[in-house]
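Can you give me the bound-state structure? Components:
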Amino acid sequence: MTVFVSNTPLRDAGINRLRPRTPDGWFLLLLPTLAFLFLVFLYPLLYIVGRSFPDYSLANYERIFATTLYARVIVSTFKTALIVTAACLLMGYAYAYALVRSRGVALAILSISLLLPFWVSVLLRTFAWLVLLQDTGLVNQMLIGLGLTDAPISLIRNQFGVVVGMSNILLPYMVLPLVAVMRGIDPNLMRAATISGASPLRSFFRVYLPLTLPGILSGTVLTMTLSLGFYITPAVLGGSGNVMIAQLIADQINQQVNFAFSSALAVALIIFSSVAFGAFALLLSVSKKKVAGA
Amino acid sequence: MKEKSMAISRRALLVYGGKVAAGAALLSGTDFGGIAHAASRSLTIATSGGSFEQALKKAMFEPYQKANPDLALQLDTPDDAARLKAMVEAGNVTVDLSSTGDFFGLDEDGQWLEPIDYSVVDKTMLLPGYAMKYRVGNDIENTIICYRKDKFSSAAPEGFKDFFDTTKFPGKRAVWKFVAGGILEAALIADGVAVKDLYPIDVERALKKLDSVKADLIWWDSGAQAQQLITSGEAAMGILWGSRAFPAMDNAPVGVVWKEWLSGGGWFVVPKGAPNKAEAFKALAFFLSEKPQIALTKYLPYGPVNVAAAKNVDAKYKGNLPTDHLDTRVSIDYSWWIKNQAAVDTRFQEWLLG
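Here's the bound-state model for the whole set.
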């Protein structure tokens, strides 16, 4: 609790410093970034929104809801993204903790194992999983060779394969923000909790976990956002039942050459994601107030 | 004094700039042997890239460049219809000639394309059906059943009926996840529909037939994936593009079925407003003539559209070219598909989702 209280005056001071009474010329330095963002991000986005309403008609949006197909795919997209994010959080939290706590060779090994795959193409890693996990793949050959199973176990073309492949690719996006936050935590705080008589479990949940919340948050939002738009990994490692919305958008562009409808699908994804993240942020601010008020 | 030095430096800049431009031309010229020409004519051709581009380059583009040293020939990728349409819409067409698949360049696509100038391209040298208003054939392609010989040693599958018979021929099947790629036609033929009665497609009947083997189907999205499924033995059978089925034979015991095969084509189109369309038609007249068409059969397992070339193909794939089996082909009706694809695809995706 002391943490929240002692932070408050500092934060206010910071805000005041960022809001100078007299405007100077420094904000002009932002202009190139703003122009860049407008040109390559905002303008194309607005163009896509405009494109989804040919002749100001809502027909493309009606088509999305005319069948249950797109609703079901959007639901399954969010489901997959949630599972992947949860898997990354569980694995990534422990990994980040170990990384922050280690020194020397262990630190080097942990950092390299995290970052090296990060630099290898997503496509390559996805196909590597295919080679490992397919019916005739290494894992199944080993299981059959050891006599653990007679027929190959289905490890791909299902939800499992998609989650394995996507978590592998997205893990660094969860670990890196966590590491950044964990690095800044004063180890004396945990020591103080122990001295004050808290059990290790209690001091973790009451002291360490709340302090890492900003890292958990940015890692979760980053992983979730990226997984919602995943395309190649579910296409290669998923089955016909594990379609993500990005695959349908790509089909509409590549196979059906229907820019307007694919734009409408993309806009729908943006709206659903914004609503989901908005709800998440609201929930968070409510729970934060609760914590601060307690 | 100051003005003069400015003028000189500006001239120096122009000279330097000219050298850079010449250097750039030389670099782009390296595609075709690195000879820098005083190029007065230019032509940009888009293809899908990869091995297809390599084959066209060797059979057609390089000989044409040799015969026309003053032509600056540029290659570009990809040849997606989506990209061409976007170019025409934006009024910024940078491609003069493009290869394309069966779904683009039909008579309905006039708003995006220039009509083929048949006063330059000689219609009479082509097989019937390959000289259309907005597109002209380049090669005859195939989608074909292939199977692992080591998995079915006693009896080989003979057609789509066997492809759907998982009791007689057990194992996974690799199929293209594209509704208009021939999978519904294959299902209907396996269900006893005569080839002449395929269209309009009875979608529900086809999906019902597909239901009977759904658990054994592996859906592929790219040609590389399809080839990998067969060569690794992950799939015992597959319906693959010929361009992937025949290379698969080099690495695994793979057989193909010519008794029933789905035919498609590779085409050329000229986008509307192409800056060098006259050059494009002149080049086409050469590409579709006998010699380059024969040369193409040396590099790709595709049949030529040139009548004389079809009788005179290279020895490499002779006997395994679509033009050697025209009597057993099942022609996909692309104009039916263009009209119905969106609706049937929605139903197909629903079915896939289960």
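A couple of observations. Chain A has one domain: 67-293. Chain A is about 80% helix and 0% strand.
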